[in-house]
Amino acid sequence: MTASKPFSSRSVDEITGGCRLRRMRKADWSRRLVQESRLSVDDLIWPIFIVDGKGRREEIAAMPGVFRMSLDFAVKEAERAAKLGIPAIATFPNVDMNLRDQTGSHILDADNIINKATRAIKQAVPEIGIITDVALDPFTSHGHDGILRDGVIVNDETVQQITAAAVLQAASGSDIIAPSDMMDGRIGAIRDALDANGFQDVAIMSYATKFASAFYGPYREAVGTAGLLKGDKKTYYIDHANSDEAVRETEQDLAEGADMIMVKPGLPYLDIIRRLKDEFRVPTFAYQVSGEYSMIKAASANGWIDGEKAMLESLLAFKRAGCDGILTYFAPQVAQMLKG
Ligand code: PBG
């Protein structure tokens, strides 16, 4: 066979029927013109970590560029986020070890750091939305999201506990309650309790499909559950092999009163996001979790990938998959870039 002999007797125009998709890719202006998805600052929710005390701002080793902050710093960061146009923040506590117990009872303290943070941020930065996570893991001595009895995470008792916690969070000024525990029946119970206490306008963002995942590792360092957790969370989070089950969970959470749904982790689960958006057409969010953040940071620190480009590509992928917004530790950095 000689190189000069064509391998196909047909011309490219015969093969493609004259449809050359590269035509619209030829210049920046035409690529911009046909771009289907866009990332805007309005898509961003920024998760932040809060600790007690004053003047504390400690970098999380497994999450370079992410800090645990005491309230004074957290309020300043919420102000910065609002100035950047970020619509909402989501708060997570690192609770003092001596306040953690078997049942996570400190979540029921109206003056725990999450409720204090909500009041302080609401007062200083009323224009930013506040999302509070309601799950027991930062408050339990064993790092599980529920009450542990005889080796079992007990469902119904946990639901009562987080429902009471949700009402306290709403009373502190939380705009959106985000249950991340995956107990059965918690959305309906929380909705009932919010309504009964006059919080009809407080929304619920359900972690509708939260998968048992290895990508939560750095978060567990951030909230101090890494060293406590025994076993795994497979008896309450969804098996990451399952997609139909994610649809059933979501269907149930929406029927119980969820206003918006979330898929977590994010990037390995774009198929789930697309499926849920097509099926339910409700406000849909993804949580680009700690492990996803840290992978991009680590590869970029080693010079293996361009960190900024990978960050933007990963976030735009969520939009393409059907997300209305993304919880991401990159939020302030991205907002700054989109502004510039
Ligand atoms: C648990 C909770 C988790 C995250 C937020 N809340 C997972 C876990 O520790 O099992 C993970 C967030 C992240 O990885 O960024 N209620």
TrEMBL record:
<keyword id="KW-0456">Lyase</keyword>
<keyword id="KW-0460">Magnesium</keyword>
<dbReference type="InterPro" id="IPR001731">
    <property type="entry name" value="ALAD"/>
</dbReference>
<dbReference type="Pfam" id="PF00490">
    <property type="entry name" value="ALAD"/>
</dbReference>
<comment type="pathway">
    <text>Porphyrin-containing compound metabolism; protoporphyrin-IX biosynthesis; coproporphyrinogen-III from 5-aminolevulinate: step 1/4.</text>
</comment>
<feature type="active site" description="Schiff-base intermediate with substrate">
    <location>
        <position position="264"/>
    </location>
</feature>
<dbReference type="InterPro" id="IPR013785">
    <property type="entry name" value="Aldolase_TIM"/>
</dbReference>
<keyword id="KW-0479">Metal-binding</keyword>
<dbReference type="GO" id="GO:0006782">
    <property type="term" value="P:protoporphyrinogen IX biosynthetic process"/>
</dbReference>
<keyword id="KW-0350">Heme biosynthesis</keyword>
<dbReference type="GO" id="GO:0005829">
    <property type="term" value="C:cytosol"/>
</dbReference>
<comment type="subunit">
    <text>Homooctamer.</text>
</comment>
<protein>
    <recommendedName>
        <fullName>Delta-aminolevulinic acid dehydratase</fullName>
        <ecNumber>4.2.1.24</ecNumber>
    </recommendedName>
</protein>
<dbReference type="InterPro" id="IPR030656">
    <property type="entry name" value="ALAD_AS"/>
</dbReference>
<feature type="binding site">
    <location>
        <position position="249"/>
    </location>
    <ligand>
        <name>Mg(2+)</name>
    </ligand>
</feature>
<keyword id="KW-0627">Porphyrin biosynthesis</keyword>
<comment type="similarity">
    <text>Belongs to the ALAD family.</text>
</comment>
<feature type="active site" description="Schiff-base intermediate with substrate">
    <location>
        <position position="210"/>
    </location>
</feature>
<dbReference type="GO" id="GO:0004655">
    <property type="term" value="F:porphobilinogen synthase activity"/>
</dbReference>
<dbReference type="GO" id="GO:0008270">
    <property type="term" value="F:zinc ion binding"/>
</dbReference>
